[in-house]
Structure prediction request, 131 residues.
Amino acid sequence: MRMSARMHLSSAQDAQPRTDGTDGGHPRTPGEEQFALAAELLALLGDRTRLALLHVLSGGEADVSTLTEACGAARPAVSQHLARLRLAGLVDTRKEGRRVIYSLRDGHLRRVVDEALSLADHRLTDSPAHD
Prediction:
């Protein structure tokens, strides 16, 4: 049975520290499971609105109203995207009165978002290379 990113990410967050003397990082040669999960994660990040939401959250916690304003998307769409990100285990939530506050789950995601935006900036500002 193939594990979806949603199921795998949720369980991966609760993984125990490694006891084999390694730092718990990725293996030297990724296996099929790593490639499959990475592809699912990149597909999830491949949506402009979700990427914008994650970028805003990389600066700190925010509620739906703040995220809606920052992303320029309709509130129902923002709520649906946030639900997908939450179910995939990429964002956390907490209640503050009646408001739900969202935050990134970990620094790895912040770095992926930053690198993707940096790559886009590089591609937009450099002249096209001729291979």
Summary: The radius of gyration is 17 Å.
